[in-house]
Please model this.
Amino acid sequence: MAAKSKKNRADGAVIGLIQARAESKPEANLAKMEVMIRRAAGNGAQIICLQELFLTPYFCQAEDYACFQLAEPVPGPTTERLGRLARRLKVVLIAPLFERRARGIYHNTAAVIDADGRYLGKYRKMHIPDDPLFYEKFYFTPGDLGFRVWDTKYGRVGVLICWDQWYPEAARLAAMQGADILFYPTAIGWHPREKAALGRAQLEAWQMTQRAHAIANGCYVAAVNRVGLERSAGGGCLEFWGRSFVADPMGRLVAEAGADCEQVVLAEARFDEIEETRTHWPFFRDRRIDAYGGLKERFYPGG
Amino acid sequence: MAAKSKKNRADGAVIGLIQARAESKPEANLAKMEVMIRRAAGNGAQIICLQELFLTPYFCQAEDYACFQLAEPVPGPTTERLGRLARRLKVVLIAPLFERRARGIYHNTAAVIDADGRYLGKYRKMHIPDDPLFYEKFYFTPGDLGFRVWDTKYGRVGVLICWDQWYPEAARLAAMQGADILFYPTAIGWHPREKAALGRAQLEAWQMTQRAHAIANGCYVAAVNRVGLERSAGGGCLEFWGRSFVADPMGRLVAEAGADCEQVVLAEARFDEIEETRTHWPFFRDRRIDAYGGLKERFYPGG
Model:
């Protein structure tokens, strides 16, 4: 317990986000990530988050039974290999993986590895999308571990995944566990045919929603997204829009990546900013917990 | 019920927001509002929302027992007078008032008046702030009517007030009742001494948070704020930042006022946009209502 309370006295952490283009083979993606993680660590990153399903192209563009072969146990071979790297570099790693849980049960998962290489646990994506070219409900069983945080060497982190971004409930429930930083590994992009009409609004909504989570909860939010045009065998095509970013507890952008380049995003999270912001904007103080019961409903009767 | 379902087939409504500087006397504010309401209606507004506590300067800059004399019953003399105007102009009016409920019990309230002049009901501000120069906890008993919507002639409206803006829970609970538009009458401004360092971030956070409510819930959001420098007898001073706005269900600004001018903001809410947006971004579909129980907690144990 002494060690844990010492950890929590850390006055900040350097976040590293790895924004990359997907290679076709898992080994190539893992090798690329190892290079980029080393670069991030060399530049001072302490908590490094990889993008959603970083080992593969975004295979959910089609419903293909063969893709289940891409899944692996978590913890498993990839977390073991990344654990060794984390220990060597003394960095925390958040590694989003396609988890094989049991025969016929799969999750969209993120593993959390501490800076001594130890596997701390995993988050299983709770909100699963299903839209044209994002056929995730076919692949992923909804998470059953709830919203979670972990005390790492460099701060208490919450991890949520992509579609969770649109749910203030998810951010709140992670922040209420004392997260200093909420990480959102992501795979979001444009349908090329929609981009001219809606592309800007979609990207702005995506960013604004997450910056609003930082504001509502007075904590840091770090989103990491892939880049590149990915074509699926089924004829689908998505242009992933990158723009990985870190927002501070007032929702200000403290770092932001481009839309089409591989990039290591670095940003400092200053934990005194969390206290300062929450003291001046004490939103937690005034939550009407006596009146929030309806949030457990789907929609109001007759509504 | 036939009439109600006919109402709900309306394909849109023109929103009017009245952004104004406060005069010192209630009668002067009411007279000014009547002029501006007529102007808004003359320009096509159908649902018109006034700013928070529109009858007075923002008296909460000081804790002054004498100010309780400013309160009135709701419904009461002001809603009766506005009801006649609403009927004459065939407009829905949302009128935020300082409500005297009983001896020693007061609320920060908004009355909803239909386009036939009928008083439909009231919302009592649920989240009450208390910051230097915003001493609302001294004046206002927290609302006990919950989060509400009303079917008006021109659409189903939810009403929330100012500090409620920072709570995604409030927006969600009103939207879950089928609100087409969430209205936020507001009195927010800068402490002049903070403006240079924090003013821009505060205003952006305020706007972003509410645009995020539009996105998360796929509905329109309309915020109306006062303008002007108000000095209190106690030596306080606030610069209200105006910038009243309407956001569409993708969070795009469809109208926005300046920071220091009296202004009638007009914007069309197109209800087909609500369905279109929610169909493409079906966030309600995937809410994990089985996992949201923690939202009724203050903060997690040990968190």
